[in-house]
């Protein structure tokens, strides 16, 4: 399994042609206290760049875009009851949705962990 | 908005002027604040987090830097009568060291700003909003007799100490503040600092607003924060606290297009002034009293957990816009979303169910009385 990152501060764990997507620790830190998350329903087809999820902090609403194309296999139901998981455990329990990838070639343009760390350090 | 409509050859740089720094700038950064641009200043939006800061203020005491606000004094024997030309409140009979909330009104009755007015021994002291202070001054100068001297105290900082522990904390340093009740003020001296202290604020809690020389602001902030019950609080929590308290925010819930009765601020129209008129916009403003205006500011409870924010529409069953949300967010003390909106008067009764629309999604909202969280002021006991 390998982890990729986007410039929109999402992480993607890829295992074969299935992927799990969430937002990074840096992203949750910027958002502040998360009070609501809307995740996509299973079966929803998304093209790279589509609106995939909504995350709301006390201060503002933000969109989460599909980092790659695919079909949603599961949204994280735990976030409805406890949206603060995005703050406390953004890169594990605070995942947003799982996806069956339709084009694994799209992963090639993404960053690995070291590259993402450099990217954030230069913001 | 540019003052100068004529383009000039040497005026090609349209980048906004750099934000100014306030006296406590370095202090905020040392405390770990995240700074943002607000009203032309760099201001702390949060320290440890809006939620924690909000809840701390509701249970302990929070220290807010509101030095961006305009502190303006009016001196001269007719200062009160002159102010009454543009404010609908009772200023002439305002008691010494008493504070009144008022509205700066345009000729058409629209609200140019909201402000606090205090009669002091030698002047009238007002606090106006930071983002509007220069426009306010221009309007006031234009509408006031030259016999009144107007002074913007831009060398002064303004700190607010708010929360149920605020009274005990400040009295532990300056015991005499215990004599102040809600909407009273006075001059105090402490360790070489000359302080003008008002028992007022913008959180719904008991607390104070303290005017201090800019070069003494850090000393005062350190002195207050040395107390275990006090933490610095950013603008983010200031906004969620005032929303829960049902207090309108100028530029969002109040604007030049809104009249006092639309804003549901009829209490700011003092009795004598309603009877006598004689203030800017009086004809229109009084024609809307007391029945109210076609549109009215109300509080909304929002079903579910997702906040409905400023700019969301209130729609009728056919999807037509009938109102607008002007403030909205998640209420940390209630753990649910709340909002303020303008809705038609006939739909403004408590309990009325309405539909808000945000990003093409409908939300069930219910008109409710404000404040959302009860005020906790230290009012003077009735004699």
How is the secondary structure organized here?
The complex is a heterodimer of chains A (123) and B (383).
Chain A: E1 2-5, E2 10-15, E3 18-23, H1 25-31, E4 34-38, E5 45-46, E6 51-57, E7 61-65, E8 70-75, H2 78-81, H3 85-88, E9 97-101, H4 113-121
Antiparallel strand pairs in A: 1-2, 2-3, 3-9, 4-6, 5-8, 6-7, 8-9
Chain B: H1 25-30, E1 34-38, E2 41-46, H2 50-59, E3 61-65, E4 70-75, H3 79-83, E5 99-105, E6 111-119, E7 124-128, H4 133-142, E8 149-152, E9 156-162, H5 166-173, E10 185-190, E11 193-198, E12 207-213, H6 217-225, E13 230-232, H7 235-244, H8 271-276, H9 282-287, E14 295-302, E15 313-315, E16 321-331, E17 336-344, E18 353-358, E19 361-368
Parallel strand pairs in B: 3-13
Antiparallel strand pairs in B: 1-2, 3-9, 4-7, 4-8, 5-6, 6-7, 9-12, 10-11, 11-12, 14-17, 14-19, 15-16, 15-18, 16-17, 18-19
Question: Mind explaining what this structure looks like?
Answer:
The complex is a heterodimer of chains A (123) and B (383). Chain A has 123 residues and is of the alpha+beta class. Chain A contains 4 helices and 9 strands, in the order βββαβββββααβα. A 6-stranded antiparallel β-sheet of chain A has the order 1-2-3-9-8-5. In chain A, strands 4-6-7 form a 3-stranded antiparallel β-sheet. Chain B has 383 residues and is of the alpha+beta class. In chain B, a hairpin with an 8-residue loop joins strand 11 (193-198) and strand 12. In chain B, helix 2 (50-59) crosses helix 7. Chain B is globular. Classes of the chains: A alpha+beta (123), B alpha+beta (383). The A-B interface holds A 32-33, 35-36, 38, 54, 56-61, 80, 83 and B 45-46, 49-52, 54, 236, 240, 305-307, 309, 329-330, 332, 337.
- Average pLDDT over all residues of chain B: 95
Strand order of the largest sheet of chain A: 1-2-3-9-8-5
Rounded to the nearest angstrom, the radius of gyration of chain B is 21 Å
Overall 3D form of chain A? globular
The span between the termini of chain A is: 28 Å
Number of strands of chain B: 19
Number of DSSP helical runs of chain A: 4
Strand line-up of the largest beta sheet of chain B: 10-11-12-9-3-13
Quick one: how many beta strands of chain A? 9
Global morphology of chain B: globular
Estimate the strand proportion of chain B: 25-35%
């Amino acid at each position: 399994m390998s982890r990729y990152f986007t410039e929109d501060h999402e992480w993607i764990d890829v295992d074969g042609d299935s992927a799990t997507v969430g937002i990074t620790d840096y992203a949750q830190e910027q958002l502040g206290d998360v009070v609501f998350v809307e995740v996509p329903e299973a079966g929803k087809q998304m093209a790279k760049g589509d609106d995939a999820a909504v995350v709301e902090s006390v201060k503002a609403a933000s969109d989460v875009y599909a980092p790659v194309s695919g079909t949603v296999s599961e949204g994280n139901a735990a976030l409805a009851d406890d949206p603060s998981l995005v703050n406390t455990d953004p890169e594990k329990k605070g995942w947003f949705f799982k996806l069956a990838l339709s084009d694994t070639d799209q992963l090639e343009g993404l960053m690995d962990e070291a590259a993402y760390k450099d990217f954030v350090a230069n913001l | 908005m540019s003052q100068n409509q004529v383009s000039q050859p040497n005026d090609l740089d349209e980048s906004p002027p750099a934000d100014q720094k306030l006296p406590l700038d370095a202090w905020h950064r040392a405390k770990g604040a995240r700074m943002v641009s607000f009203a032309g200043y760099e201001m702390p939006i949060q320290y440890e987090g809006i939620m924690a800061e909000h809840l701390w203020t509701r249970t302990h005491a929070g220290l807010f830097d509101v030095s961006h606000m305009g502190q303006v004094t009016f001196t001269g024997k007719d200062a009160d009568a002159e102010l009454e030309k543009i404010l609908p409140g009772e200023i002439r009979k305002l008691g010494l060291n008493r504070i009144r909330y008022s509205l700066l009104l345009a000729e058409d009755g629209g609200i140019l700003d909201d402000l606090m007015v205090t009669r002091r021994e030698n002047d009238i002291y007002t606090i106006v909003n930071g983002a509007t202070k220069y426009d306010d001054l221009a309007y006031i100068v234009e509408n006031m007799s030259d016999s009144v001297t107007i002074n913007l105290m831009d060398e002064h900082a303004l700190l607010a100490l708010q929360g149920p522990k605020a009274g005990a904390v400040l009295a532990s340093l300056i015991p005499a503040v215990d004599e102040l009740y809600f909407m009273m003020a006075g001059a105090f001296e402490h360790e070489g600092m000359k302080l003008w202290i008002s028992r007022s604020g913008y959180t719904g809690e008991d607390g104070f607003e303290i005017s201090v020389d800019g070069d003494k602001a850090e000393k005062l902030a350190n002195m207050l924060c040395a107390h275990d019950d006090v933490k610095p609080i950013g603008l983010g929590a200031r906004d969620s606290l005032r929303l829960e308290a049902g207090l309108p925010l100028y530029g969002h819930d109040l604007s030049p297009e809104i009249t006092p009765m639309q804003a549901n601020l009829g209490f700011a129209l003092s009795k004598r002034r309603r009877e006598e008129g004689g203030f800017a916009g009086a004809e229109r403003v009084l024609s809307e009293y007391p029945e109210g205006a076609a549109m009215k500011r109300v509080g909304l409870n929002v079903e579910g957990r997702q906040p409905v924010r400023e700019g969301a529409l209130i729609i009728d069953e056919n999807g037509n816009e009938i109102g607008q949300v002007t403030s909205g967010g998640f209420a940390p003390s209630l753990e649910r979303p709340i909002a303020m909106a303008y809705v038609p008067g006939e739909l403004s009764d408590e309990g009325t169910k309405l539909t808000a629309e945000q990003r093409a999604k409908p939300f069930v909202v219910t008109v409710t009385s404000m404040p959302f969280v009860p005020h906790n002021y230290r009012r003077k006991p009735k004699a």
